[in-house]
């Protein structure tokens, strides 16, 4: 077991501050960390059957080792199950376990489990404590930090939710060994996004080490995950409720979301964001915000990591529909995140014409 790389990142939010612990093979220390960060005696471990089979045993052992009572709750973790029906099942299980405000919910899984367990803990008894134990790279650097929780409605993704900060985020990088490669790459898209909007030194580091990083080389990976968590923590600390700065995290997401929905959610979110970032960077250059060199560096890094960068060829009309621009709203502006240079981005209100010009895809 390798616990040498253990480090922590603070998410500073006044009384709602918490630590993100990053380590490898660190299950043993999870129980003691929960005792330190909550006053709870009972832990509800929410996970999916698949992830449970892989990781529940060492987690429960660590918790029981410090005298915490554990109750296991299984729930399917496909995104199509991220809905109010699943949340309702969680409430039933919480009641059955006689959960009260001194009970803590622990989400063991990817963003789907984290978002559902987080939302259930945000709303059950008007809020009970919550711990994130992310097992996908995307959840480690993105979904588990910042307190956004929620579920999908039939009409759209993430339409119901709440801000509910966790008491602790516990990352065990060893869990990535069982994660399918496509899911690993999806996490790298958000890692590259954090670097390109916020930190050119980190971007340069990624340019040097990306091949080792996507191969999950422990030393390289732990440094990269740590820096990426720091960036997310910094942005969230400065703008918890997404009034301004936090919107920068939507870089690549306007077109990324459109591609996801046009592809009927068969493509992974991170892969769509990779394509969306290249597109956003190209638009930034065309509109005079960024240099062609910056676009080239971003595209090159994404492609070398193994992520896609080419826009799927749906008609322009379909893209406009997908980003919510109907005929009546042609005149209204879209808050679009543009790249200014590597390590710097800003949000600008752009007309749909500027985001998706007539010449779109006629290259
Ligand atoms: N709250 C936020 O701020 C935020 C941010 C980004 C995304 N999200 C949400 O997160 C969700 C996506 O999360 P995700 O990308 O983590 O994917 P996910 O939770 O859908 O998990 C992807 C797949 O990997 C499997 N899996 C998870 N960990 C594994 C492991 N260690 N080994 C083997 N298999 C494993 C899961 O069972 C699932 O099949 C979306 O619903 C999205 O809306 C939320
Ligand atoms: Zn994203």
Features:
binds zinc ion; 13 helices; Dehydroquinate synthase-like, alpha domain; two-stranded antiparallel sheet; alpha/beta; seven-stranded mixed sheet; 363 residues; Rossmann fold; 2 domains
CATH class of the largest domain: Alpha Beta
End-to-end distance: 52 Å
Q: What is the CA-atom radius of gyration, in angstroms?
A: 20 Å
Can you summarize the main beta sheet? 7 strands, mixed
- Ligands: nicotinamide-adenine-dinucleotide, zinc ion
Figure out the total of helices: 13
What fold name stands as the CATH topology of the largest domain? Answer: Rossmann fold
Cα shape: globular
Mean pLDDT rating: 95
What string gives the helices and strands in order? Answer: EEHEHEHEHEHEEEHHHHHHHEEH
Structural class: alpha/beta
Q: What's the β-strand tally?
A: 11
How many domains?
2
* CATH level-two architecture of the largest domain: 3-Layer(aba) Sandwich
Approximately how much helix is present in the residues? 40-55%
Please state roughly what percent of the residues sit in beta strands, choosing from under 5%, 5-15%, 15-25%, 25-35%, 35-45% or over 45%: 15-25%
Low-confidence stretches: none
Strand order of the largest sheet: 1-2-9-6-5-3-4
Write up what this structure looks like.
By secondary structure, this protein is an alpha/beta fold. The chain has 2 domains: 173 residues, Rossmann fold, CATH 3.40.50; 171 residues, Dehydroquinate synthase-like - alpha domain (Dehydroquinate synthase-like, alpha domain, Up-down Bundle). Helices cover 45% and strands 19% of the residues. It has 13 helices and 11 strands. The strands form 3 sheets. Strands 1-2-9-6-5-3-4 form a 7-stranded mixed sheet, with helices on both faces. Helix 5 packs parallel to helix 8. The mean pLDDT is 95. Bound molecules: nicotinamide-adenine-dinucleotide (NAD) and zinc ion. The site of zinc ion has 4 residues, from helix 10.
């Amino acid at each position: 077991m390798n616990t040498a790389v253990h480090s922590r990142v603070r998410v500073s939010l006044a009384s709602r501050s918490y630590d993100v612990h990053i380590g490898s093979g660190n299950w043993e220390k999870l129980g003691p960390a929960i005792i330190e960060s909550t006053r709870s005696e009972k832990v509800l471990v929410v996970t999916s059957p698949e992830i449970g089979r892989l990781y529940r045993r060492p987690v429960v052992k660590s918790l029981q080792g410090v005298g915490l009572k554990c109750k296991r709750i299984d729930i399917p973790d496909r995104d199509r199950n991220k809905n109010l029906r699943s949340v309702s099942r969680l409430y039933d299980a919480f009641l059955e376990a006689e959960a009260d405000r001194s009970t803590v919910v622990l989400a063991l899984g990817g963003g789907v489990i984290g978002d559902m367990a987080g939302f259930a803990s945000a709303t059950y008894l008007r809020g009970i404590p919550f711990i994130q134990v992310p097992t996908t790279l995307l959840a480690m650097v993105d979904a588990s930090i910042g307190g956004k929780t929620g579920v999908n409605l039939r009409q759209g993704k993430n339409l119901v939710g709440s801000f509910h900060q966790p008491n602790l985020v516990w990352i065990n990088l060893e869990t990535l060994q069982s994660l399918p490669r496509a899911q690993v790459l999806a996490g790298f898209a958000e890692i590259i996004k954090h670097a390109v909007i916020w930190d050119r030194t980190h971007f340069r580091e990624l340019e040097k080490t990306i091949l080792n990083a996507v191969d999950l080389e422990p030393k390289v990976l732990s440094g990269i995950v740590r820096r990426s968590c720091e960036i997310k923590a910094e942005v969230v600390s400065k703008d918890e409720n997404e009034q301004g700065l936090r919107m920068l995290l939507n870089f690549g997401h306007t077109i990324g979301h459109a591609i996801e929905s046009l592809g009927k959610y068969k493509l992974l979110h991170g892969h769509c964001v990779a394509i969306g970032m290249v597109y956003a960077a190209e638009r930034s250059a065309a509109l005079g915000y960024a240099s062609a060199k910056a676009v080239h560096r971003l595209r090159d890094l994404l492609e070398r990591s193994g992520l896609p960068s080419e826009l799927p060829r749906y008609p322009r009309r379909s893209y406009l529909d997908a980003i919510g621009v109907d005929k009546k709203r042609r005149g209204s502006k879209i808050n679009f995140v543009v790249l200014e240079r590597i390590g710097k981005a800003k949000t600008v209100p752009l007309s749909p014409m500027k985001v998706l010009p007539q010449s779109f895809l006629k290259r």
